[in-house]
Design brief:
By secondary structure, this protein is mainly β. It has 2 domains: 141 residues, Methylamine Dehydrogenase, Chain H; 134 residues, Methylamine Dehydrogenase, Chain H. 0% of the residues lie in helices and 51% in strands. A hairpin with a 4-residue loop joins strand 24 and strand 25. It starts with 9 loop residues before the first strand and ends in a 10-residue tail after the last strand. Keywords: Repeat, WD repeat. Pfam families: WD40. It comes from Crenichthys baileyi.
Length: 328
Amino acid sequence: MSRPAPCPIYTLRGAGAPLNTLHFRCPGGDTPLLFSGSAKGAIHIWNLNSRRAEMVVEGHCGNSVIWVSTLQSGDSLMSQGRDMQVCLWDLKEGRSEAVDSVWTGSVGFCQCSLLETSPSNYLLAFAGSQTEEIKIIEMPSKNPVCTLIPDTKLGMVMSIQLWKPDSGLGPLLFAGYEDGSLLLWDVTQRSELSHVKAHPEPIMCLTFDPRRLRGVSGSCEKKLSSWMLDNQNNIQLQDCVMLVNPGVSQLRIRDDSRLLASAGWDHRVRVFGWKKLQPLAVLQYHTDMVLSLAFSDHQDPRQRLLAAGSKDQRISLWSIYNEQADTG
């Protein structure tokens, strides 16, 4: 018999608005934290020991926060809002005013992507003011690196991810567009490496696993599209995973490359084995669209969590498949 669907181990309430983005910071020995960004412009910093918000930052003049992340140093928080700003916050100081900001000019919902290139420098990619434009800058200097614009009309940039291959090549970037196209860009050469039509509808989300050179994308249809890179850096479309209901807000792969989670418009989180895309569980708790997901970065695998944020203004936390069970 299959195991019954699990329940959340606890929930976080009090954000007071839909939860667009989630990000964990769970260093060993320190207080595990969960950062959330809401549709009313608030960033909550949740203490996972007390299960309460220990700080709330009002960062984007009441505009929706669509992305949050921390730098590996642990002291800097970044947030992106629909006020066309990316803000940098110093967590050491406990300050509630941004120490720096970047103007994006983008009114869309494409989340930024961050790639740390050294302990003190990182690349920041974001959708620009033009429909198909992606800008990449070096931080903290804000020096422009490149602007990427496709040769053909693909519509709005919907989803991006920077990554650095082990081969010694410079940074690469995946980008999903409004017409369903998926492109791989060489950031150093400012050139397209590969272009496939992954979906007939806009690519709402994508995620890539550099360990397996494999990724997956979702749209408003009833399927996920998986793809991989060959040794010539060409994107090869692979299997499709059919879903019961249409619409995926976000996709996340756990750091150990064992699990894939999808945030559904049907109020559900679906969990798959990442190796074979085998369905493992359907997590049912929320009463509206699930908008955001994050896997925790606990050093002890037994403590790992999956967080889901919903339009119903709640965050659910789940402990799933943390033992060495076969996840396909």
